[in-house]
Amino acid sequence: MLQVLELGIVVHSIVIGLSLGASNNTCTIKPLVSTLCFHQMFEGMGLGGCILQAEYKFFKKAVMLFFFSVKTPFGIALGIALSSVYKENSPSSLITVGLLNTSSVGLLIYMALVDIPPSRFHGA
Question: CA angle at residue 17 from 87 to 78, to 5 degrees?
Fold first, then answer.
């Protein structure tokens, strides 16, 4: 269950990093950086709490924390590497980013509505 939550967060954050890395417009970069800082802080608090409460071995927890830590910088590096090819307003890139964001948000909504509440209130 926790792996599905992390998968949604990882895909979403890689896409955001890709958008940030590929952007050449200063008016787009400044709001994305400030939003990304707050976004990552609350994601880290939520996912980090879930990872700490999970009854996984240390190695599995360390791997999950590693992927959480490197996903956005990886997306930014990928965006910078693809910035010569990636056109942020082309129909194909808009469709690709839209599909990736939709799938990751769908995973997060599923986790929020189906998997997390029963596990939180199981003892009540």
Answer: 65
The boundaries of the domain holding residue 19 are 2-120
pLDDT in tens, 22-51: 777 788 788 888 878 887 888 888 888 888
Residue 22, CB half-sphere, CA atoms under 13 Å: how many? 21
Token pair for residue 58?
A: 């240390």
The model's pTM is 0.73
Cα 9 to Cα 18: distance, rounded to the nearest angstrom = 14
Q: How many domains does the chain have?
A: 1
With tokens 């071995």, the residue in question is 57
| pLDDT at res. 115 | 63
pLDDT band for position 117 (cuts 50, 70, 90): low
What does the pLDDT read at residue 118? 57
Q: Which residue has the tokens 């194909």?
A: 92
Q: How many CB atoms lie within 10 A of CB 115?
A: 14
Q: What are the percentages of helix, strand and coil residues in the chain, rounded to 5? A: 85, 0, 15
Q: Residue 90 CA to chain centroid, in angstroms?
A: 23
